[in-house]
Write a structure and sequence with these properties.
11 strands, alpha+beta, three-stranded antiparallel beta sheet, five-stranded mixed beta sheet, 385 residues
């Protein structure tokens, strides 16, 4: 397993592998079989499997076990599943058993605490090129973990958790699944990725914009608390003139709401489950707020207090228009959000070059149907108590 074993001493090879070395590499590095046997009999070295030697006492036990299992798997073996994912930083899904992927024709003797899995679909794109020990990339590791999971719901939870941790992305998961070959949970994994993809701020912003167009709502400004392509299920839409903030999901830490601002909270799922209700709620919220600079400010809604003349009050004689715009920009800047940008060349999935992966379902890109009268521009009636 060591690079150019003939050019390194057995100590250097073992140091690269957490104190573990194969018997073959030790002999190539200059040791004899008698030397190896004597060290093992003296207790200085241990032999956890045939042809595998642990030369360091007190090294990292988990890492030594992984290296020993890897060397026992032979040429072409790599760590996979939960073992590889834990080494790459996935938290909360570690497993006591070490998983090793081996070529399909390989036969390995049983080893305590180790499971050998044969894989005929393991390309160079599925393996880290520079990390030691050799292991699968995060996306392939998560796909394998979901496939091997005992329960379907646990597999779904695993994928969602890996996406939320930023360990993988929807795009890399789809590519890994496309090269994985036949698996029994392809539909479950694909549906989970579809659901996660439409919960990214970028997709939520596009879906919300479709609702605005279908129901003749004014265009709001989409704001994202996180990365535009992370499946957070959170988005804010700011209607500046009406001082209305539509909060889709939970978009960040609660802050003191400035006087006069209305915050409308909408569950994420309502965007595709009940777009009519979303449009009705936003219409009612806009109707209860008087646009800034309106000549009838305070007269159209008896429940709103009369504006007090003074510096920075919209519509006050002698107050420059630039002051109002500056205050609004400063107020928006104090939010914890960043604008969602549609970068040129990116598709709906983010970074996909405008093309959907082959495993993506059509339902993910289909918006909820609306009636012809709403598409024609009729505004919905706000719900009554």
């Amino acid at each position: 397993m060591a690079p150019s074993p003939g050019r390194l001493s057995w100590r250097e090879i073992a140091d690269l592998q957490s104190g573990v070395i194969s018997e073959h590499d030790a002999i190539v590095a200059g040791l004899t079989r008698a030397d190896i046997r004597a060290r093992v009999l003296a207790g200085a070295w241990r032999q956890p499997a045939r042809g595998v030697l642990i030369t360091a006492v007190g090294g990292p036990p988990r890492l030594q076990q992984a290296w020993a299992a890897l060397l026992a798997g032979g040429r072409g073996a790599v760590l996979g599943g939960a073992t590889a994912a834990a080494l790459d930083g996935l938290t909360g899904h570690d497993h006591d058993v070490v998983t090793v992927l081996i070529p399909p024709e390989r036969r390995c003797a049983p080893m305590p605490g180790v499971v050998f899995r044969r894989s005929s679909r393991l390309s160079g794109a599925d393996i880290h090129r520079t990390r030691l020990p050799p292991r699968t990339v995060p996306a392939r590791s998560v796909v394998d973990m979901a496939e091997w999971s005992g329960e379907r719901e646990h597999a779904r939870t695993l994928i969602v958790d890996a996406l939320r941790q930023g360990f993988v992305t929807v795009d890399t998961m789809r590519r890994a699944m496309a090269g994985r070959g036949p698996i029994t949970r392809r539909t479950l994994i694909g549906d989970t990725l579809d659901d996660a993809a439409r919960r990214t701020p970028r997709m939520l912003a596009q879906l919300y914009r479709q609702i605005e167009l279908a129901f003749a709502l004014p265009a709001g400004r989409a704001l994202a608390a996180d990365s535009a392509d992370a499946p957070t299920g959170r988005l804010d839409v700011w209607y500046g003139p009406w001082r209305l903030l539509v909060r889709i999901g939970q978009s960040g830490p609660r802050q003191a709401r400035p006087a006069g601002r209305l915050v409308l909270a909408i569950p994420t799922e309502r965007l595709w489950q009940a777009p009519e209700e979303v449009a009705a709620l936003v219409t009612a919220g806009l109707g209860s707020q008087v646009p800034a600079g309106s000549a009838v400010s305070g007269a159209s809604d008896p429940g709103l207090p009369e504006p007090t003349p003074g510096p920075g009050t919209p519509g006050t004689p002698g107050t420059p228009r630039e002051t109002d715009e500056t205050n609004e920009r400063d107020e928006t800047r104090r939010e914890w959000h960043e604008p969602v940008r549609d970068e040129p060349g990116e598709g709906d999935q983010g970074g996909g070059g405008g093309q959907l992966p082959a495993v993506a379902s059509r339902q993910m890109r289909e918006l909820p149907p609306w009636g012809a009268e709403r598409a024609a521009g009729q505004r919905p009636v706000p719900p009554t108590a």
